[in-house]
Amino acid sequence: MDFLNFKAITQTGNFKTPSENENIEYKEASWKLPKSFWETVSSFANTLGGIIVLGIAEDKSKHEFSITSVDNVEDIETQIFNDNNNISCLNRPVIQNNDVQISVFQNKTIIQVIIHPEPFNTRPITAFGKAYIRTGDGDRVTTKEQLKYFTVESQNEIDTHLLPSTYTIEDLDAENIKEYRKIIDKKGIISTNSQLSDQEFLYSIGVFRKDRLSNSNEYHLTDAMSLS
Known about the structure:
Elements: H1 6-9, E1 14-15, E2 24-27, H2 36-46, E3 50-54, E4 56-59, E5 64-67, H3 73-84, E6 100-105, E7 108-115, E8 126-127, E9 130-135, E10 138-141, H4 144-156, H5 174-187, H6 198-204, E11 208-210, E12 219-221
């Protein structure tokens, strides 16, 4: 996921595309960070990830967006990282330094924050005690069924182990992966997004996990998935 290039998007500061969708959210944040920022962080982390752009206003009547600027940049950036590490805000931090970009367009400051999708077995990410998911261009509080699904998946973390790096996606049955994606989509619990590659999908559900004991931070196949 890359930061948006507003020099390529607009010449005037007004634009219609890209509009808000399941991976993009615009928010005004002139002098303070809106509480809804963390709801979107939760929803992106619990679904497919996305990018939040601060300093953008929406004119709903024209279906148009405009760059309005973030005026209190240093304080808002500090608040982002403070709240990111505040357990009363998020149940676990998800934003790293390189996930935040500050840029200036026509003397107006924009803050972009990339939120990566959490693996299924470490979800849900909660904001102020509630878990959200992204549907369309909005953030929705999770249903009881979705919360139950997250809880079951998080428990699976205990029973999975990393396999040697010699095992790759090539050792998995492509048809089994295809059928599993269909099952998850059909249940309607979590969107798997047809645009995701099989490898990205497997990363998102925890079939591949990052080796946090190694400096390489490489993803390894776990023993939770049957090999072909």
